[in-house]
Give the backbone structure.
Amino acid sequence: MKDVLIIGAGIVGTAIARRLSRYKLSVAVVEKEADVSMGATKANSAIVHGGYAEAHEKTKGRLCYKGRIQFEQLDRELNFGFRKTGSLVMTTDPEDLPKLQSLLENGIKNGLKDLKILEREEILALEPNLNPDVVYALYCEGAGVCSPYEMAIALAENAIHNGVEFHLNTPVEAIEKKEDGFLVHTSGGDFESRFVINCAGLFSDRVDQMVNQPTFHIRPRTGEYLLFAPGTGKALNTVVFQMPSKMGKGILVTSTYHGNLLLGPDAIDEDGTVDRSTHVDRLYAIYQAGFHTTSKIDPTKFIRSFTGIRAVASTDDFVIGATAVPGFLNAAGIQSPGLTSSPAIADLMAEILGEQGLILEEKPDYDPYRAPIIKSGKQPRPFSEINKLLDIPSCPEKIICRCEQVEEGTIVDCLHRGIQVTTVDGVKRRTRASMGFCQGQFCRPRIKEVIEREYGIQIDGRTDVEKEGASRVTREEFIRCCKERQEQQ
């Protein structure tokens, strides 16, 4: 009998697992995919939001800032990658000033103390490459960027280190309410647990309805992104948003934590089955919208497109807390700013569990620290030096990925941290191997070879996208589209 069973290993499920790992509890996580962070967590804007955009009356408005202020300490403990950059909501229309003032006032209600409205000269001093027609911007000093999948991986590894069980490739099939808890039927066997927390993302309404009458439903909202080559993120110093709409925060232009320029997302509510394909018309529209922010966007530096899918609840808010069935808790409908809010969601879930009778006794040997996989601040070496290490016999110093200069020792390290990593993309998310300009054309077979040698198993060497059957706009296709559209103008 477990004390708590968590369904779903995205950023929210792993944050809750790590939060509960500090107590003398038996905790397990079940996840239908082959790795953690496989849903919205692996494909989003990676922004640690300020906390001013969501209405104070909503749960997500009250939790965003509470989560944001934990990121620096969490990164010190878990080494997943967070950088405070500040953010701007910019406008070139003087009539937007009242809207920016409303955002500022809402942010103050949500607890923020680092907001102010800047005028043109102040803005351009902060962001010289911004559209020179900018007139006003709301500046939030404490916003930033992180690596969300690396964060979820770090949370999971630390939770495992502190005694939490993770069961991957284990979809939930049914849940029975018992007198003393729940019997959760999965493809990997049955789990008995006193409490169940539903963090199933896009499927959280279905999981909830295994035990409850319908009270909310989830509608997927897709958003496509353009990612540019490493180093292109130097064009901007902050996260830059355009004016938000009812569909979200609008097109943003930012540097990723690792220095790539990122544009997106658009927002389309979907019906029925959703895939993660990208579409050249949508991407070109995002690309064009990006020029409203900055002219420093070079289409020849485009390397990848991807689609994120947000779990939008019919309540238009997070669905968090106890349900009509005692012991069954929801953490559902976690769309933006779910990443930023995740530490505060974990705190809230622990508080609710305590209110429902779970004894939260601290472990004297709880260890909050997790060593990094990627060593930050490491400077690229000359390619003449790298080339000598490409085809040497197996050793920790052998270079597996030449674009990102990832050594074999780093890949071996990521494979032995409590989660069996059985996909090339799982290694990519942990080490950045195959995230460079060639997008894995060189290193994917080499990664596969290391995985198979370390585990003594055969794996499917295809990428996640290939397995899903999704199609992605290629670099050549996007550049050709840009050239054709420009010729038509």
Remarks:
- The two ends are 67 Å apart (CA to CA).
- The chain is about 30% helix and 25% strand.
- The chain has a mean pLDDT of 95.
- The CA atoms of residues 153 and 339 lie 13 Å apart.
